[in-house]
Please model this.
Amino acid sequence: MFEIEEELSKLPDQPGVYIMHDADDAIIYVGKALSLRKRVRQYFQPSHDEGIKKRQMVSHIARFEYIVTDSELEALVLECNLIKEHRPKYNTMLRDDKTYPYIRVTVAEEYPRILFSRQIKKDRSRYFGPYTSAGAVKDTIELMNKIYCLRTCSRKLPKDAGKERPCLNYHIHQCMAPCRGTVSREEYQSRVDRALEFLNGNYAPVIKELTERMNAASEAMEFEKAIEYRELLNSVKQIAQKQKITHMDGEDKDIIAAASDDTDAVVQVFFIRGGKIIGRDHFHVRVGTEEEKGKILTDFVKQFYSGTPYIPKEIMIQEQIEDIGILEEWLSKKRGRKVTIRIPQKGLKERLIELAAKNAQLVLSQDKEKIKREEGRTIGAVREIEHLLGMKDLSRMEAYDISNINGFETVGSMIVYEKGRPKRSDYRKFKLRTVTGPDDYASMHEVLTRRFLHGMQEQQELKEKEIDPECGSFNRFPDLILMDGGRGQVNICLAVLEELGLSIPVCGMVKDDFHRTRGLYFHNEEIPIDRHGEGFKLITRIQDEAHRFAIEYHRSLRSKSQVHSMLDDIEGIGPARRKALMRRYQSMENIRDASVEDLEQTESMNRRAAESVYRFFHGESEL
Model:
């Protein structure tokens, strides 16, 4: 249970991004803050009013999470990335990436230029940014050109060298005029390299030089010049606030770092897609005393990527791990393309790892007790069920339910829980094909047969193609099947498994006269269960979830069947033609009164379809 007051007290006094969720866990708002503690707490203070829209948003907040950054600039860029990715209901949609200024260095040219850009293109140029101040970017470009005397013209060099006179910049000593051939390619490139070094983060030489010039101008009472140097110095310092939330290479990456103490560890994963951080997740790991971080990360990589549906091109981790070569080969095989695992040692990638580690440490220190409570609800509950049933290594559980109204549109549901948590990506719906009428046993027999036959076929196909079995969806069989009912439902499942030659434990969830779970039916006996234990609560959640999923699917089918038009019964008339007819004629009476020739003129209609509509209303003899 998320206690807002408790979580507010844990907020750090650091810059970052906060993410608000509603009761359905949908993201409804993303914001940035210079101080997460001060900003997020404001939303829940009665005296603080930001208007009707924000009040309405606050009333829907069920929980919040946050990502700590190293600066407000990073928080701003991350906020924009998350808003574009999730499009929260209460955010004003931001414009696209061209609103961010970048510095572009045309390194593919023989005599490169430093330019202002609002777009990143695949033109072999090097891009730096994004930055929040367009003015600071322009001042910095101007500064670079002044200090290193680089060209600003668009001439094609050396092709156009000597064709025109040098521009004014040459005469005021702010360009070395490569267009005139007064500077060698090597000398010009050395100046470009120094400018790139500045843009890569080595600001000290330039800051020192500007400071000295500013002080010298001030001592000489050239105050206008001193102010000019001061403004340039401020621009450089603003640019120097580098951010790492957006990558220039535009690749997909996962950033993985861990924080640990004697018995617990938290692994933080940042998901970079298209060069932008679009989300994160953290995982609690139980570790042994003095277990090394490398071992924690090795185990995590194996477990995490065995179940995740998407593997990026590059995985960056905090420390050296065991068997990197084997893991890369395994991941490449799962992905179908090469996957690289890297341990960044310097630069932007290392700082991203540091940011992930910083967030992991915050989660470990502030949310340890909450994580333990959550673990009790999930892993602890699974352990209780294991103990009750006398099982070991229980992880994946599948539960099934049937829904119908007097046999109408009978459907089945399959839900999956792994390690005590719902795995919604593996949920499945079944529309009954062979059963008519309200026969729950026959319906369950069909659902289970289809589920496991499909899984066996998928297993065979993956084996023949030598594809990792984790890549499938139906091929993963459960450690335990949970049936919504007692002896009858369990026996149906056991019969299906016997027919298919499968051996999977089956347990019934027995209800009392008030439709509440009272025990488990396992190995032909009813086992009582402690109604105050976490195992009982997990069983109840699974039972309710299977029931909910089946009912929602049945409800959606009923809704579709109720939205039925007479035109749906006409041969050759599908949704597109039905809409076109209704748009043109507005009513069924007008369609009935139309001639074949008139009907044929309707959008997407042909002669055969027009005759079919006419016959439906008038009969074959009147055609």
Confidence is low (pLDDT under 50) at residues 94-98. The chain has five domains: 4-94, 100-239, 253-366, 380-560, 566-622. Residues 100-239 form one domain.
